[in-house]
């Protein structure tokens, strides 16, 4: 076994590898960019080496710097994690040429799978079923358009060297093909350094099933069962589980055999994932082989009791696989979701900023947290905004779903916006509960998961009660510091001579004002919201928990309060409200900026769709911003005339920068 390894990655996966290495007594060396100098993987490793600037091309994609760091630190092997250089055959070659072990497959196997096009051709020759399409090297737009017409619509354009849901477009008509081709090629070149694409028939309402495979240098190849990853948004997985509720025993066995056949066809060693698309009738087609560890590998670990990183290390060190196919365990049901700094109500716009609060459920045999950040860390603009992976395990699927919901209810993130409420809606949605979701369901029915309806009155009343209690506590503390702390006038807690004073409250929720009127004090109130007058008794707020009797019925809520925001949760639903004072300030600023189209976050301008003097309509796309590995379309807030462009294509802009100015007074 190795004595020292270098981890050529960052964030959650780097921390994950460090945990296993430490358990095995292996010394770890981290690498880091300027943006990650204080990151958790740097703090957890035994040694950490700086390798360049904040952008991936300046650091985590610099294979030469990483190899030199490994040599200087005395490492015998390099673990690439996932993303970055993990599937780069040239990097794997460079590692081995330097006399180091690459903790992954051989470069020859990676080259066969590094191109989706080549992989499809190879699998087809090996007898593995593939989706009809075009995988040729001729990438001229005219030829690709002709091939698209031959394949028929709908079809999918894919980055040939891509992954992680990047560089993919669905095209439903010939008129849409060329604009989508150009956007896909641009995104592929930016994310993967190569703009080659492939075309394939788009299978409607498919399931996404992947098989975890493992091989060693002695010719042994097995699979470790499947994971279902059908819950996806824009081809990005958001919910994974094992075993799949869709597969029959016969289909599971057939797909497992096909996955092993695919791995053997490329002499595969180490961890890999064979991904299949399955149509509603159960016909499955090869998609790709990911020649690395997958983000969702903990699902397999929880249902098998195995440590896949340990297997990676042992296989890379020359050991044989620890188990034969017949001995692979399968126990219970596991699920994984990913907590992101993103705003589902704003089209899942990636976020960044300091994690003022990060509260996650305590780890246990049934709940696992894989994260690369802690409270107080910053979610950087330069990398994927994932905060943590939440993985749960229980005896069967209903029990695992119940455990997932409870774990999500314990999560609280303050600072950048997060997708927690979206994940809670997902975990309770009938399509998930009944195990019938397909890969396009979320994109077709997103409004069922992003909570756009009016907030539940009980949550609003809980927020109002917690606000009243906090106000009274604050006033008592203020009175205690006054010259006459016993004076009722100093306390100002809602008491009035002869009656309990009425106090107006107002919150803002998604642009709508919610007004309430409260009477009472000390945990006893009558609160009017809309047509309802609610009786609150016995209200107490302690350590983030609000208990009360609402119209005589006992209730309990989780509450988080901070300047300008209050969050409440009843165990199934959460609600975030803003005081009206803060909202008015924001609304005034927004109203003043109706003539300006601003960058919602730092990024690079990749396309300008208009020029000065152009007439535009409300909602028309004006520019495209690339940020956090995504392309964001910036649209006109109203109809008008473009007065000025304040950015150029290729320019890096800061958040809130004005990119397009419309003529005023139109």
From TrEMBL:
<dbReference type="InterPro" id="IPR011761">
    <property type="entry name" value="ATP-grasp"/>
</dbReference>
<dbReference type="Pfam" id="PF02785">
    <property type="entry name" value="Biotin_carb_C"/>
</dbReference>
<dbReference type="Pfam" id="PF21139">
    <property type="entry name" value="BT_MCC_alpha"/>
</dbReference>
<dbReference type="InterPro" id="IPR001882">
    <property type="entry name" value="Biotin_BS"/>
</dbReference>
<dbReference type="InterPro" id="IPR005481">
    <property type="entry name" value="BC-like_N"/>
</dbReference>
<dbReference type="InterPro" id="IPR048429">
    <property type="entry name" value="MCC_alpha_BT"/>
</dbReference>
<dbReference type="InterPro" id="IPR005482">
    <property type="entry name" value="Biotin_COase_C"/>
</dbReference>
<dbReference type="Pfam" id="PF00289">
    <property type="entry name" value="Biotin_carb_N"/>
</dbReference>
<feature type="domain" description="Lipoyl-binding">
    <location>
        <begin position="586"/>
        <end position="663"/>
    </location>
</feature>
<dbReference type="Pfam" id="PF02786">
    <property type="entry name" value="CPSase_L_D2"/>
</dbReference>
<dbReference type="InterPro" id="IPR016185">
    <property type="entry name" value="PreATP-grasp_dom_sf"/>
</dbReference>
<feature type="domain" description="Biotin carboxylation">
    <location>
        <begin position="1"/>
        <end position="447"/>
    </location>
</feature>
<dbReference type="InterPro" id="IPR011053">
    <property type="entry name" value="Single_hybrid_motif"/>
</dbReference>
<feature type="domain" description="ATP-grasp">
    <location>
        <begin position="120"/>
        <end position="317"/>
    </location>
</feature>
<dbReference type="InterPro" id="IPR000089">
    <property type="entry name" value="Biotin_lipoyl"/>
</dbReference>
<dbReference type="InterPro" id="IPR011764">
    <property type="entry name" value="Biotin_carboxylation_dom"/>
</dbReference>
<keyword id="KW-0547">Nucleotide-binding</keyword>
<dbReference type="InterPro" id="IPR050856">
    <property type="entry name" value="Biotin_carboxylase_complex"/>
</dbReference>
<dbReference type="Pfam" id="PF00364">
    <property type="entry name" value="Biotin_lipoyl"/>
</dbReference>
<keyword id="KW-0067">ATP-binding</keyword>
<keyword id="KW-0436">Ligase</keyword>
<keyword id="KW-0092">Biotin</keyword>
<protein>
    <submittedName>
        <fullName>Acetyl/propionyl/methylcrotonyl-CoA carboxylase subunit alpha</fullName>
    </submittedName>
</protein>
<dbReference type="InterPro" id="IPR011054">
    <property type="entry name" value="Rudment_hybrid_motif"/>
</dbReference>
<dbReference type="InterPro" id="IPR005479">
    <property type="entry name" value="CPAse_ATP-bd"/>
</dbReference>
